[in-house]
Amino acid sequence: MAFAGRWEVESQEGYDEFCKGIGIPADVIEKGRDFKMITEVTQNGDDFTWTQVYPTLKVSNKFTIGKESDMETIGGKKFKATVNMEGGKMTVSFPNYFQTNEISGGKLIETCKAGSVVMKKVSKKI
């Protein structure tokens, strides 16, 4: 249940380079650069609802660890993915990047990799 709660981004590294690398338009990158995104996570055993709240939209994905689920990107692209958990780290492959989520030092750490480009977001519980 470590992931459950509301989290607010307090720092991020590699945002611009990562967003450009996965094809996000420049105007969208600009709007999101300093936005303190909120992530809401509910957990019931291996069942999760992972919601990200942006200035103009809210994207929510429901999944069960180890089972293929229907997912959606912030750009509205729908895809199927399996979220796995190993050693307290949650991993999932999106259409053009790989993401790892973990709780470390009471913070939610989200690391996204697209090729050699890495973006890291650190969120505090609110």
Number of strands: 11
Approximately how much beta-strand content do the residues carry? over 45%
* Radius of gyration (Å): 14 Å
CATH architecture classification name: Beta Barrel
Overall CATH class: Mainly Beta
> Order of helices and strands, N to C?
EHHEEEEEEEEEE
> What overall form do the CA principal axes indicate?
globular
Considering the protein shown, what is the CATH homologous superfamily?
A: Calycin beta-barrel core domain
**How many domains is the backbone divided into?**
1
Let me know the largest β-sheet. Answer: 9 strands, antiparallel
What is the topology, as strand order, of the major beta sheet? 4-3-2-1-11-10-9-8-7
- CATH fold descriptor: Lipocalin
The SS-based structural class is mainly beta
Q: Would you mind describing this structure in some detail?
A:
Belongs to the calycin superfamily. Fatty-acid binding protein (FABP) family. The protein contains 2 helices and 11 strands. By secondary structure, the chain is mainly beta. The chain has a 9-stranded antiparallel β-sheet with strand order 4-3-2-1-11-10-9-8-7. It has a two-stranded antiparallel sheet with strand order 5-6.
